[in-house]
Amino acid sequence: MNMPRVFIPDPIHADGVARLSGRFFVDAPAGGQDAAARRLAFAQADAVIVRNLAIDASLMDSCPRLKIIAKHGAGVDNIDVAAATARGIVVANVPGGNADAVAEGTVALMLATLRGVPEAHRLVISGVYSARWRLQYGQLGGRTLGLVGIGNIGARVAKICAQGFRMRVLAYDPGLSEADIQARGAQKIEDLKSLLGASDVVSLHMPMSAASFHLIGAAELRAMRATAILVNTARGPLVDEGALAEALNARRIGGAGLDVFEVEPPSPDNPLLRAPNVVLSPHTAGNTVEAARNLALASAEIVLAVIDGNPPAGFLNPEVWRTRRSSA
User: d(Cα 169, Cα 155) in Å, to the nearest integer?
Assistant: First the structure.
């Protein structure tokens, strides 16, 4: 009897691969693949575990055996869930699997931006040590944090900043009640621009959707304080990058810390790469050893559950369960 095949196109923690081994043929290429090899691996797969790779309807149509798409993380804007449902494919994710890591990465970007960490580093290695006398930084202590979205990650950021830095925490999240937001450690603000104008640090934690595309544009940046910083560890297209670069260059806001971009990797001519007081990282806020292991094991459990005939944790299209593709 042939074992079912799991394709893992991007690296995951070894413990997740080990959890599947023995029950599945696990195709997890260590050195990458060319396009033809990747297409063949998808076509042969009963299950896939994906990170940021796009899984659209046309790709699904080339995968006649595919029964399970397990997202190694929470955001599924790279997966056409409706198309999967129409084809009887189960889709599940791992909400909160790297929330602690991303929350810590978010606060790290706040501090790095406020305290000019890249500039201070460059001064030391370039031998301009005496320039320290002209440097003055902002601090988080006692300031106001504005969270745009307060889900698993936003709630953790709220706790770190309120308890660790004595910050006042505001949150704009239309999907949550005042009581819900208060329980997550913040004061509910009904209007986005009101939150922007009241905050020293604005941190984005909204999912990507058609409604949230360029949620922060030129008008929203004008609503921010001149000394405020913007931090984005959620999704790049939440921010109009051209408008942000213009605001940074005109010194209309104090700075930005970005872990995500509209196009990844950003093109060499992206104006944010040359903007003042910007701290950039390559979509790595959640990349800790602990988070990688959690996500890999949880993704593996999704595959195991479905193959064993059980609804998985993080089930995103439960309506497909009765008409799902057979695991036989």
Answer: 10
